[in-house]
Amino acid sequence: MSLWDLRVPPPGYAGKLLGGLTLAAVVGFWWLATQGATPEARWISPVILPSPAEVAGSFPALWNDRGLLASIVATLRRVLVGFGLAALLGVPLGIVAGAWRVFDSASAPLALFGRNIPVAALIPLTILWFGIEETQKVMFLFLACVPFVFSDAVRAIIAVPDRYVETAQTLGATSWQIVTKVLVALALPDIYKSLRSLFGMAFGYIMLAELINAEHGLGYLLSTSQRRGMSDHIILILVIIGLIAFGIDRFLLFLQRGLFPHRTEAD
């Protein structure tokens, strides 16, 4: 078996090595393109792309002068509350719709509409409904995520093989027992995996909401950095966002492997 065979993933160590080499190549090109004692000596102007050292050196100012920690806390709080509300509503409704398909048929047009509406279009609507304070940001995230949470929960319930349902019916289980002890139990790993993926989407969506009347937040820091022409802070904030998102995803994967060891995946 070769690494070049179609649809064959490389072994774990090889995959990590390839990813590390790609990252090193990107950083190496960045370093080469921004070397030079003066802006004129560089391939790329420092206004457009600061060097890695300049980006790293801007961290103290971002932390001390611009309230990086307060912005990280504000962003995470908004994501946890908004996405948490979407999960609390979307998952139970998705389970009901997946178990009793009449509800799926009734809700399908609304779910399709919610998944396909441009997320930025929700900003003026949520401002109209909830104002420009914290409630608007949380409800924007809730409305943006709940159609996807609902649809993925429906899909996970429907994907449970019929033989398990038929076996439970043969043993005399009631409809409620089939839903709670068969459908939900078997679909829960897929529902959790979907929520883990959608949390990353929510983390991206909140950047839009934080452009509106926010005093703290990573999206707010990005916006103000752009207005001030602070390209070093823009790149540094993007790196921090990526590291936070990666850390959260690894933590959720750790929980996934503990909660569902029979469904552990190489990730």
State the main characteristics.
globular; 267 residues; mainly alpha
Overview of this structure, please?
By secondary structure, the protein is mainly α. Helices cover 75% and strands 0% of the residues. It is built from eleven helices and no strands. The chain has helices spanning 12-33, 52-57, 59-64, 68-99, 101-116, 122-130, 134-158, 162-170, 175-209, 218-228, 231-259. Helix 4 runs antiparallel to helix 5, helix 5 crosses helix 7 (134-158) and helix 10 packs antiparallel against helix 11 (231-259). The radius of gyration is 23 Å and the shape is globular. The protein starts with 11 loop residues before the first helix and ends in an 8-residue tail after the last helix.
Short description:
75% of the residues lie in helices and 0% in strands. The chain contains eleven helices and no strands. The longest helix is centred in the last third of the chain and has 35 residues.
Number of strands: 0
State the end-to-end CA separation: 21 Å
Helix content: over 70%
Order of helices and strands: HHHHHHHHHHH
Number of helices: 11
Report the mean per-residue pLDDT as an integer.
89
Report Rg. 23 Å
Sheet with the most strands? Answer: none
SSE class:
mainly alpha
What share of the residues does DSSP label as strand, in percent?
under 5%
Shape: globular
Task: Note poorly predicted spans.
Answer: none
Which helices and strands occur, and which strands form pairs?
Blueprint: H1 12-33, H2 52-57, H3 59-64, H4 68-99, H5 101-116, H6 122-130, H7 134-158, H8 162-170, H9 175-209, H10 218-228, H11 231-259
